[in-house]
Write a structure and sequence with these properties.
alpha/beta; 16 strands
Length: 368
């Protein structure tokens, strides 16, 4: 019987186990030009016993930033900063992918330099607010990307992927979930276009597919993963009938030979859909299963019964840097603290919500 603690081949690289540290966006890029610091390297190195680490969301371009002090991979200084991180993880035998996350309409002009504004498939404002250095503010109506700007954005992802490889990453994961830009192209309430990038199921998947293809062409398909979250309402996404568009997406991805598909289940009701996609996608499936509270030991059976090839753990990894060994012995576990806040640090943030405190490096994660 296959277990989560068995090694696995991931597109030609051997992972020590099937336990994945899920991507969790952090707001701690205090280095020059939103680059990671030594504390970032320590944080990921502490968790190198994961079979695979997927980093916090990293913006592929300046306009792709949606939260304060999140890191990028679009400059030389950012690439150099990430090299310190990957060297630290590799020194402890770990494997690490960079998650490339363009937040699209989830952002605010106050987070961007000059006259830049958030962009999206369509000029549709998200319902809700976000924290900026000026405090809590409403989302703004984004600028609709022109067809030429869509192509430029695809190219930005490919350039950031090349930078990721230059920085020593083993690969990249494209964030197509949780209401960010790629997800915004997939969802009907955020993509109201009638050109080649919207309207039909095939057209709404085009941005995701073209981005995956461009990144695969840039660094090799075996180094590329894609994260999706069908029916996830996070960040004001509405997908009342996701089956057709996601099956269209998976069928288009199938011949590209990417390293994995990473599926985040928004609710337990998504499981039948997960099993359906599992049959359609013949590559490696990473699953972040729906659960009450942080994904824990009970989820390990999903590898044993073949529902998933690898399992992604989020908040529990923050409080337990050695999580694979704790899962093997069924604990004990440190408990993530969902009530942790930035609470006004030296950079002036107040009431910035966080998932959990890291008891080792005293850093905090913000959103997923």
């Amino acid at each position: 019987m296959t277990t989560a603690f068995d090694p696995v081949d991931l597109a030609g690289r051997t992972l020590a186990n099937r336990i994945v540290m899920a991507p969790m966006t952090r707001s701690r890029a205090y280095g020059p030009g939103h680059s990671p610091t030594g504390a970032t390297a320590e944080y990921y190195a502490q968790r190198a016993s994961a079979g695979l680490i997927v980093t916090e969301g990293i913006q592929p371009s300046v306009v792709g930033q949606g939260y304060p002090d999140t890191p990028g991979l679009h400059s030389e200084e950012q690439t150099a900063g990430w090299r310190r991180v990957t060297d630290a993880v590799h020194a402890r035998g770990g494997t690490i992918f960079a998650q490339l996350m363009h937040t699209g309409r989830i952002g605010h002009p106050d987070l961007l330099p000059g006259e830049l504004r958030p962009v999206a498939p369509s000029a549709v404002r998200a319902d809700g607010q976000l924290f900026t250095k000026q405090g809590l503010q409403d989302f703004t109506t984004p600028d609709e990307l022109s067809a030429e700007e869509v192509r430029t954005t695809v190219a930005d992802f490919a350039t950031a992927a090349r930078n990721a490889i230059d920085a020593g990453f083993d690969g990249v994961e494209l964030h197509g979930a949780n209401g960010y830009l790629i997800h915004q192209f997939l969802a009907p309430n955020t993509n109201r276009r009638t050109d080649e990038w919207g309207g039909t199921d095939e057209n709404r998947t085009r941005f995701a597919v073209e981005t995956v293809r461009a990144v695969a062409d840039a660094i090799g398909a075996s180094r590329v993963g894609l994260r999706i979250s069908p029916s996830n309402p996070y960040n004001d996404i509405q997908e009342p009938a996701p089956d057709a568009v996601y099956r269209t997406l998976v069928r288009a991805l199938e011949p590209l030979g990417i390293a994995y598909l990473h599926l985040l289940e928004a609710t337990p009701e998504v499981r039948p859909f997960t099993l359906g996609l599992r049959k359609e996608f013949t590559g490696t499936l990473v699953l972040n299963p729906a659960s009450e509270g942080p994904t824990g030991h009970d989820a390990l059976g999903l590898v044993e019964d073949g529902t998933a090839d690898l399992l992604a753990f989020g908040a529990l990894f923050l409080a337990n840097p050695d999580l694979p060994s704790r899962l093997r012995t069924s604990g004990p576990y440190n408990t993530p603290d969902p009530a942790t806040f930035f609470g006004g640090d030296e950079r002036g943030y107040t009431d910035y919500p966080a998932l959990a405190a890291d008891p080792v490096s005293d850093s905090v994660t913000a959103v997923v």
